[in-house]
Amino acid sequence: MTEEQMLAGTLKNNAAAQEALYDRYSPRMLAVCYRFAKNREDAEDMLQEGFIKIFTQLHQYRKEGALEGWIRRIIVHTCINVLKKNKKFSETVDLIHANAFHTKEDMVPSIIQAKQVVECIRMLPLGYKTVLNLYAIEGYSHKEIGKMLDIEESTSRSQYTRAKAMLEDILIKKHIIDKSQYKNQYGKINSKI
Question: Does 161 have pLDDT greater than 60?
């Protein structure tokens, strides 16, 4: 089924078209949810809630960009709304952890395998993980993140800086990178994570 057929069918509440749309995009969107969630079950709940929104809001898609990008934005916003609704974001913004870490400008050598880095990102406190995901991976600005999370732009910046420092420490402790490797070889977290 083509994208056009899926869109037309889904807009007419055709179950086969909805299933095709879900089957095509849900694996990648589950990966997005998984980065924000505490566990797979929470990620699957976020995914289901996100796809309900996608199906009910599909009439708003104007074909001005890729359908996958539009779906991804809804999924990311759904994840943020779930975290805010459950007050999980505000409960886990843990500034105490950050005091012991030094920050660096660049932090992850580009040779690190993405899966290992994602698993380490998931170990961060939820507030740090959320800001890191939104800024470094999803590409939102600190101003946009502040609006999404109902926090100050400066809070987003400090959460990101602290998240990078904590992530560096986790990567070193797990022997994914070592200090000498880190000092000699810099890379940035990018959208390939």
Answer: yes
